[in-house]
Write a structure and sequence with these properties.
Aspartate Aminotransferase, domain 2; O-phospho-L-serine:2-oxoglutarate aminotransferase activity; cytoplasm; alpha/beta; globular; Aspartate Aminotransferase, domain 1
Length: 363
């Protein structure tokens, strides 16, 4: 078997090796049925059972009840949700509040502006996204349709550690890069959406966790295919879903449960991130963290070196040593290590050893 790389890709990202091994065994034959899961009708009993089991698993892992929430699986990625969300819930005369903390929260706002009236409720753009805005005392207006925020900023490497109290106004969150990575009260959110390709599966499928009462609010003025209520009433099978991606997501959710769920994974993730942040902070300025220490993400760890040339050399040498995906996002540069749930501690420890050696040789 070819030696596997230390995979720090930001998304599509690392998948658990045991999930990949199990998926390999089921690619040709699924459940002893003589055909692959990729060849089955989405109206077949196995696919119906797969969708139902995946919904139950995700609710269980987030500590949510089906009497209160539904899980919808659909294609299009989280970026599609940027437009689908206001199409369903931003009605004429109402305003959608957006909390800006990074590039993806800005993109969500831009899509909503095509649909209706929006308002920036809080922003840290003036500080170059180096921290998250303080939202603890957020004021919500009477005509606010919903409040939207991105809980973890994949590009910048920051996250929210506190969430606003919005009262009766729905709080809707993009959790693409930190869903199931930490133990928080998921009941505080009226809707959660996440592209699977960070922590819960492969690219090609998106999970939406939505309060049942929100389904009654979906606009009747948009096509059926754009309504969350359509997916809920058809158990995510209104049209052909990305079946293979759903299958892999189910395997990752099972793996997540076997690891001890979000409580155990949060402790593991905190320890992994601490290894790398400690190497940054102890480097005497050779490595410089980008984000305020109180807002640092455990999922996406970002830092800079003294010059772009040195950063390019760091990435080049890291690739030669078996590391994958350490270049920062093209819009910001620098270095980024994405240490999602499936990234083992050994990979983070190996990265720290490489960082120390690189500083010894180039510092």
């Amino acid at each position: 078997m070819t030696t596997r790389l230390y995979n720090f890709n930001p998304g599509p990202a690392a998948l658990p090796l045991e999930v990949l091994e199990e998926a390999k065994e089921s690619t040709v034959q699924y459940g002893g049925r003589g055909i692959s899961i990729m060849e089955m009708s989405h109206r077949s009993k196995p696919v119906e059972q797969l969708a139902a089991a995946s919904e139950q698993l995700l609710l269980e892992l987030t500590g949510l009840q089906q009497k209160d929430y539904r899980v919808l699986f659909m294609g299009g990625g989280a970026s599609t949700q940027f437009a689908m969300l206001p199409s369903n819930f931003l009605s004429e005369g109402a305003v959608a509040d957006y909390i800006l903390s990074g590039s993806f929260s800005e993109k969500a706002l831009q899509e909503a502006q095509y649909i209706g009236e929006t308002r920036i409720a809080a922003s840290s753009k003036a500080e170059h996204w180096q921290r998250t805005p303080d939202v603890r005392g957020l004021k919500v207006q009477a005509n606010t349709a919903y409040v939207h925020m991105t809980t973890n900023n994949t590009i910048e490497g920051s996250r929210f550690n506190a969430f606003p109290e919005t009262g009766e106004t729905p709080l809707i969150v993009d959790m693409t890069s930190d869903l199931l990575s930490r133990d928080i009260d998921y009941n505080q959110f009226s809707m959660i959406y996440a592209g699977a390709q960070k922590n819960i599966g492969p690219a090609g499928i998106t999970a939406v966790i939505i309060r049942n009462e929100m389904l009654d609010r979906c606009s009747k003025q948009i096509p059926l295919i754009w309504r969350y209520a359509t997916y809920a009433s058809n158990d995510s099978l209104y049209n052909t879903p990305p079946v293979h991606a759903l299958y892999l997501t189910n395997l990752v959710l099972q793996w997540t449960k076997r690891q001890g769920g979000v409580q155990q994974l949060e402790a593991i993730n905190r320890d992994k991130a601490a290894l790398i942040y400690e190497a940054i902070d102890r480097s005497g300025g050779f490595y410089e963290g980008i984000i305020a220490t109180t807002d640092r993400s455990d999922m996406n760890i970002t830092w800079r070196l003294a010059s772009k040339e040195l950063e390019q050399l760091f990435v080049q040498e890291s690739e030669q040593q078996g590391f994958e995906g350490l270049a920062g996002h093209r819009s910001v540069g620098g270095i980024r290590a994405s240490a999602y749930n499936a990234v083992p501690r050994t990979a983070c420890q190996a990265l720290v050893e490489f960082m120390v050696d690189f500083q010894r040789r180039k510092g």
